[in-house]
Protein: 3-isopropylmalate dehydrogenase
Amino acid sequence: MELNIALLAGDGIGPEVIDQAVKVCDAVAKKYEHKINWTSALTGAAAIDAVGEPYPDETHEICMNADAVLFGAIGHPRFDNDPSAKVRPEQGLLKMRQKLGLFANVRPTFTFPSLIDKSPLKRERIEGTDLVFLRELTSGIYFGKRGREDNGNTAYDTCSYTREEVKRLAKKGFEMAMSRSKKLCCVDKANVLESSRLWRETVQAMEKDYPEVEVSYEFVDAVAMRLVQWPNSYDVLITENLFGDILTDEASVISGSMGLMPSASLGEKTALFEPIHGSYPQAAGKDIANPLATVLSAAMMFETAFGLNAEAQAIRNVVDKSLNEGVVTEDLAGEQKAYKTSEVGDWLVQNI
Amino acid sequence: MELNIALLAGDGIGPEVIDQAVKVCDAVAKKYEHKINWTSALTGAAAIDAVGEPYPDETHEICMNADAVLFGAIGHPRFDNDPSAKVRPEQGLLKMRQKLGLFANVRPTFTFPSLIDKSPLKRERIEGTDLVFLRELTSGIYFGKRGREDNGNTAYDTCSYTREEVKRLAKKGFEMAMSRSKKLCCVDKANVLESSRLWRETVQAMEKDYPEVEVSYEFVDAVAMRLVQWPNSYDVLITENLFGDILTDEASVISGSMGLMPSASLGEKTALFEPIHGSYPQAAGKDIANPLATVLSAAMMFETAFGLNAEAQAIRNVVDKSLNEGVVTEDLAGEQKAYKTSEVGDWLVQNI
Ligand SMILES: CC(C)[C@H](C(=O)O)[C@@H](O)C(=O)O
Ligand SMILES: CC(C)[C@H](C(=O)O)[C@@H](O)C(=O)O
Structure:
């Protein structure tokens, strides 16, 4: 099979972790006799520096012509404490999500037996946790009307959802629940927000089409609690954009394996795969960042974008093996020897 | 001193835990020679049943004429899965906050040495945690314009803030930071939301008036993570209404002492004190609920509303004593004997 993949390395540690994922993908492709055509493109602060724009049209072109997008990270501290900066890397991220139509952000949180003790939670709380969030990614308060009034002294943002937007996200949620343990939790704030009431009534109306799925409805504040108390009581969760931003980040640290968590963002026409750890600027260029989240994102890509399950499993197996044999970067090494980012990549390639 | 206190027991376990707090307050008042005039009023589902309204005008009258309000909890499961119910207990809560002008919700999270092992977090993560959130409580998306368009197929909510609203909340935050360790964290989503940019620029402009306070700015998603990872790295945090709803609930479970966490809601004219645990309907009427959060809320009331610090400390001391001697309800008893709600209250009174 011929695989056309757009490669957006982005900022911070993005380029180093992407390099390892590319090596691993090429090794898998060789083993299973595929041909990958990689096309690199600029994004984030790197793109602002080069062409004054965090998501240039040329990059969009490349993504639209690819079968899938593999993405590193964007964001740079020099923009962080300057809320008035005219061009910001995050705008590129939001523009990319919207222009590519990536409406469903899939973020799993699971545990690796060998890493349970890295979790801030006690073993008995976190053991067996295997949940996945579907976060709506192209609507809500991120993309509603916003502005200032009264000489800049009043600021507003609008959270708006249409029934169709809720439906297409919820449909993915029901389907994912069917392929897992048939439990779906709809997270909202229907006791206060009108948009949440639309979410709840839309999901309620879909229940009859999936009679086997057991659906629960929980308020976002209650979920923020239970994620810390009993994370393993959840399976598939669906939610709107801003709640998803907060809760998926909260969920990402409970496993203690944040450096390993992959994600996918799905649209009608294309899909994008990225590690959730962000650009981690303090580590950029040092060859110390953990590449495994990006490598596991590539596994999700083989499975979700190309339907190549054996290839995905081959990647997951070699990642498990590296963890079991302690071939890991400093964040996971503890008292043991810490490998460099590129050394972990090389080891994975040799063991595919 | 003569203390005029409005008493809103509310729903679920509200009445039982309020009863214990009243007994304790009366005992403290006797010891320190104060006279408390209690005036009870209806609120929540109880008020809907009695007069068709969750926050009746008469209740408001009573609150406005009191020096402080002691509140139990509101909410009833019969309203929970009916987003379209016309009258809901929560509306009473929101109306009460707005009409009483309770713009600053103060929610501490701290640990009790004897309860550290109840935390879902590992001991070394949670030990020493002593933080306090100031959540803006009368504006933002809770009170902005909301509605439906397009035949009910589009729903929207508006988050709006004025500079003055941010200032008065931030002022309380800076003052609280000055009385503690002089560290203040402003939690926002300034990389996306215009209202957050107003928050950030307003707080930045206030920094010069509090040169001793070290201010940091963090995104809400990052705080949702760090609260689980390193809760003891925070001290005073200020944030807007919805972020505060989510994060204070998340923070409340990390200590493992949710049943003990008090809160205060401060306004220009009056202040309200309540346990954060909610109405806990499953336990209502069983005399098993933990009354300590309500008793500690009464301690906050003595201190904050009346400036009676010795009285507040006397309450805190007797609560500590009950914990150390194992005079606790079933949620904390473990293998030991569990006391009834009313028995804990009686014991506190005898030991004041
Ligand atoms: C950088 C920021 C705009 C972004 C978001 O809020 O969506 C990030 O937090 C994420 O979750 O991908
Ligand atoms: C009941 C609900 C409206 C309320 C809120 O969201 O403010 C509650 O969660 C709280 O935090 O007091």
In short: Residues 14-31 of chain B form the longest helix (18 residues).
